[in-house]
Structure formats: C-alpha cells, structure tokens
Amino acid sequence: MDLASKYHDSSPWPARGKQQVLFILDIRNSFEQELLRGWIHQHTPSGSEEFQAPQVCLNLGHDRKGMDSAQLVMALALPADTLITPLRVAWLPSPKAINSGPRLRDFVFGDPRHPGTHRGRKILSQRPERVHLIAGVPDSVANLRTRFERRHSVEDEKAQQDFASFVARQAVVVLDLAERRLQGGRYKVPRHVAASLKTNTAYNEAVDEIAAETGTPKAELMKEAAGYMDEMVSRPSTFWLDFYAKFNKFCLGLGYEEEIVYDQAAVEKMRQIVRENPSMLLWTHKTYLDGMVVPKVLYDNDFPMPHMFGGANMNFPGLGFLLHRAGGIFIKRSFRDNELYKIT
Question: Which of 167, 197, 254, 268 is most buried, judging by how many CB atoms fall within 10 Å of its CB?
Fold first, then answer.
C-alpha cells in the first residue's frame, strides 16, 4: 500500500455544513507535518478550502515540557461553531518488535512507535502497513468553551491561554482514544495531569484558602506545588510500559514458573467493572516480587495500566525511573501538617 492509497482510505475532514474547520496537527517532526498536510490537501476538492481551515502544528507528546499553545490562542478566535479536528500519524511497531518487546536497539534508535524523520521515511517506504493517519473526534469551539468554563476560571487574565491549553489537552484525549484502537487498551495513560490540575478551579480555590490562612503568596505556593506534582505525577509511555512488562516477566521467572495461573473469568468480570467505574485494585503480597504479578496479568490481558502507589523511599535511581514511567506514583510517608501536599 503506497502513500496515495493511505490518503484515500479516509478523509480528515469532519462531516459539516457551512462550519469552518480548524486542524490541530500533533507532530513530532517535519515529516509527520508533511504527511498530515498532504492528507488534508488530498481531500480538498478545489484546494481553496484549505485557506478556510487553519492548521496549528503542536507537539502534544511532551507532558514534562508542556506545550506551546500560543498559536492556538490566535487560531481559536474563530466562530463558535468552528469544528476543531485533531490529526496524528500513528506508527505501529513491527510484528517482531511486538513479540520480543523492547530491544537493545530501541534504546539506541528510539521507540519504534515514535520514529524520527529519516526512520519514518524508511518505514513508509518499506513497511507502509505500519503507518496510519488518524483523526480524533471533532468538537466545536462553543462546546469546548462550555466544558472549559465549568471547571476553570474565566476571569483570570490567563483565561485565553488556559483555554487554548485545555483545547490542546482535549485533542490529546481524542487522538489517544483513536490510536488505542490500533495499539491496544493497555496503552491508555493519563496525559498532562499537572497542567490540568494547575488550571482547575477547585484546586486553585483550595490554594487560595491556604494562601489566606498562611499569608504565603499564591505564586509561591503554586511553585511549591509544581515540585510536588513533578515528584508524584506518573508519566507513562508505550515504550516503558512494554519494558516494564518485560522486566516483570524476567523478575518473576527468577522465582516462579513461567506461566501465571489465574481465573480468566474473574479477569473479564474485573474488566467490565473497571470499564464502567473508577476502580481501585487491592492485592496482597508477601514480597515485592509478588507485586509484579497483577500488573503483568493486566498487561497480558490488554488492560489499561494500573497506577501503583509507593513510598517516596522507593523512588531511587533506576527503579524509580522505570516505575515513574510505568504507572508508579510516589508519595511521602508523612505529610500530616502539609496542607498543600494533601490537596495536590
């Protein structure tokens, strides 16, 4: 299948009447930008409609670095019924890579799901079936603004910037949902948690109360809270989830038989519960090795990654790095008098 065939498989344009369209292109490099713009152009009958459909290019993948939504602030000055449509290039690993899990070469050349420009061109040329163009579910500016105003302050001088960041985060949500249909449910991960919390109205009101009670400027408290978020917020990725599963398999093999015995019917029942309700899984363990069993079973059954709470003393070099990128949340053993830590 060549690139032209991929372009014709589906259209990035949403169903609409006379509404304008704003495309958000989630790109990591110039090649992905080229692919997505070519996809848009391929389905533009006259070519003139592109001028009525602004395109904002953002790298939405860096949770820690944040995102520069300045372009989006200006682009959102569009009619309220404008449809915002996010686009992304999804890269599937080779069947060999899926079966083997992360390999040494992946540490050298990077995650096969996130290739650079040169590697991406090579994959498209030699293994085009691994390249997918995906569009997230579109939504109107009006609907997004209504949802934003329910939980965020609109009086703040940074309201427009916060709204643009909110729109970008919603683009991540719908794109991740579309990509999981290709990659698998085990890769459902939270994104931009700290950024969402910092702009949340309820959280800001709680910080305001602490500022009033202690006399500490809010800006200083928010800076302190950002440090707590950096410690606690897990930043999982597809690569490290795969690596953690492989690591668990290796460790469990040191003390147990290769096959893990469990009740498949109970797993399916739990899947339904987790799908329909916020859930907390509690399991016993005699050793730290036992704590690897449940995450491994869930991974093998294509469950969303479970968040695992652990003491901050476990956040040491090596293991802390891995767990932080595989769903681990480290909290202090004692924070009785630290109200800011509690609300964070």
Answer: 167
Q: Are residues 138 and 259 in the same domain?
A: no
Determine, yes or no, domain membership for 341. no
Q: Which domain holds residue 171?
A: 3-183
121 & 19 share domain = yes
- pLDDT, residue 307, reads 86
The set of residues, in sequence order, having a beta carbon less than 8 Å from that of 171 and lying 6+ positions away, is 24, 26, 58, 60, 84, 86, 136
Tokens of 224: 């302190």
Of 152, 183, 214, the one marking the end of a domain is 183
H/E stretch holding 8 reads helix 3-9
Q: Which helix (H) or strand (E) holds 238?
A: helix 238-253
**Domains contained in the chain, number:** 2
Does residue 196 register a pLDDT over 90?
no
Higher-confidence position of 9 and 64: 9
Rounded to the nearest 10 degrees, the angle between the axes of helix 141-151 and helix 159-183 is 110
Q: Does residue 194 form part of some domain?
A: no
Residue 169: inside a domain:
yes
> 278 — phi, psi (to 5°)?
-60, 130
Is there a domain that residue 343 lies in?
A: no
Confidence of residue 119 (pLDDT cuts 50, 70, 90): very high
Report the distance separating Cα 183 and Cα 311, nearest Å: 31
Structure tokens at 164: 């643009």
Amino acid 56: pLDDT = 94
Among candidates 40, 68, 66, which has minimal Cα distance to 52? 40
DSSP string, 55-104: EEEE-TT-TTT----HHHHHHT-S-TTPEEEEEEEEEPPPHHHHHH-S-H
Instruction: Identify any residues that bridge with 330 across adjacent strands, giving them in sequence order.
Output: 310
Whether the model pTM is above 0.70: yes
Among the candidates 153, 183, 213, a domain finishes at 183
